[in-house]
């Protein structure tokens, strides 16, 4: 589920935006001033904010700065100001998009969805799973705050597995994606060895893995407690 916070003091516009963005998989939270917006932001799990710049009790730009001190969630500014300096300032403060009034609600919806898609891609490069953090962009991998040293091959295998969480991947699929075009020249035991090494670095008990499970006769799956097959 995705939660979108709409911060707009014009009640009819706020409701119009909410109706336009509401769909399966999206929860809408509404605020009409900065005070209620701040309360919602710090008490809910928010995935994107549609933020008016001019609000009754302050500036959305100041609120953006406060958010950026704690989060990188996407922010789309709404404003009647179409001066270039205002738009530039919005982006410099950390805004992801800037829409000037009046605007089409359907165009706003399209731009919100586009920002969410970009945000999803970015999140996939950095994942927090249990007590582990995997930042593939920075090649920084940690377990319980301690850095894990992974080889390039182990990084590729980990990325494929976590990007397909809950999905069984055959040995052939993994070989093709980890070793790309050279899979046919790689020893068939290379995958088993790489899985074993990766488990040794991320599992509490590599002999009874919680994350990287073997599906007998098929391949592997990244999960927690779904399967109990033993390594073969």
From TrEMBL:
Per its record, what are the GO molecular function terms? Answer: phosphorelay response regulator activity; transcription cis-regulatory region binding
Q: Which residues form the OmpR/PhoB-type domain?
A: 124-224
- Could you give a single Gene Ontology term from the biological process aspect? regulation of DNA-templated transcription
Q: Which Gene3D superfamilies match?
A: 3.40.50.2300, 6.10.250.690, Winged helix-like DNA-binding domain superfamily/Winged helix DNA-binding domain
Keyword Transmembrane helix in the entry? The reply is no
Tree of life domain: Bacteria
4-aspartylphosphate (modified residue): where?
A: 52
Q: Which GO terms describe its cellular component?
A: cytosol; protein-DNA complex
Give every Response regulatory domain span.
3-116
Concerning Pfam families, the annotation shows:
Response_reg, Trans_reg_C
Q: Which UniProt keywords apply?
A: DNA-binding, Phosphoprotein, Transcription, Transcription regulation, Two-component regulatory system
The residues that make up the annotated DNA-binding region are 124-224
In its UniProt entry, what is this protein called? DNA-binding response regulator, OmpR family, contains REC and winged-helix (WHTH) domain
Q: Which organism is it from?
A: Fontibacillus panacisegetis
């Amino acid at each position: 589920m995705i939660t979108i916070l709409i911060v707009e003091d014009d009640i009819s516009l706020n409701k119009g935006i909410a109706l336009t963005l509401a769909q399966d998989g999206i929860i809408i939270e509404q605020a009409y001033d900065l005070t209620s917006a701040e309360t919602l932001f710090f008490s809910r799990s928010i995935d994107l904010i549609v933020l008016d710049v001019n609000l009754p009790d302050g500036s959305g730009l100041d609120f953006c700065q406060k958010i950026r001190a704690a989060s990188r969630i996407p922010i789309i500014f709404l404003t009647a100001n179409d001066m270039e300096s205002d738009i530039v300032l919005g982006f410099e403060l950390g805004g992801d998009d800037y829409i000037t009034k009046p605007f089409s609600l359907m165009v706003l919806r399209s731009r919100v969805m586009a920002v969410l898609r970009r945000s999803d891609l970015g999140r996939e490069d950095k994942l927090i799973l249990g007590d582990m953090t995997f930042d593939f962009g920075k090649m920084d991998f940690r377990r319980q705050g301690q850095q894990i040293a992974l080889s390039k091959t182990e990084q590729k295998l980990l990325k494929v597995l976590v990007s397909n969480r809950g999905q069984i991947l055959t040995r052939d699929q993994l070989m093709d994606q980890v070793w790309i075009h050279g899979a046919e020249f790689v020893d068939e035991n290379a995958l088993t060895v790489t899985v074993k090494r990766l488990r040794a670095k991320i599992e509490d008990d590599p002999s009874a893995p919680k994350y990287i499970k073997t599906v007998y006769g098929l391949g592997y799956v990244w999960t927690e407690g779904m399967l109990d097959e033993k390594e073969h």
